[in-house]
Automatic annotation (TrEMBL):
This is Knotted 1-binding protein 36. Keywords: Coiled coil. Residues 66-93 form a coiled coil. It comes from Citrus sinensis.
Amino acid sequence: MEERDGDAGYGMGMEIVQKQENDASIVASEEMELNITGILEKIENFTQMISELLESGKTMFKELSNEFEERLITIHKEQIDKWQEEIKELRLHDASNEEASAILHNARFLLQNPTIDT
């Protein structure tokens, strides 16, 4: 019977050890859950920060894109206006040259044919 009492004591000791291990695992689990919760909060905060950075970046690039587009349109317009002015000046110059050429042609004709009037 003593062995049984010893065995029974051993069994009670195992139950206490298992209960302590369960309590330790519950404490560890709660601690682990707190750690996991902390990490999940970090993930959420990081995700939110990235989302805000993306939105900020999109807005910034959209503004830059609009400014870039406006500037390119302005550069294009200025260059076209410059070339149109050059065309206008060339046409005026050409008209002046044509007028001078016609006067010279008439003068040459008169010099080559002086007897027509007499």
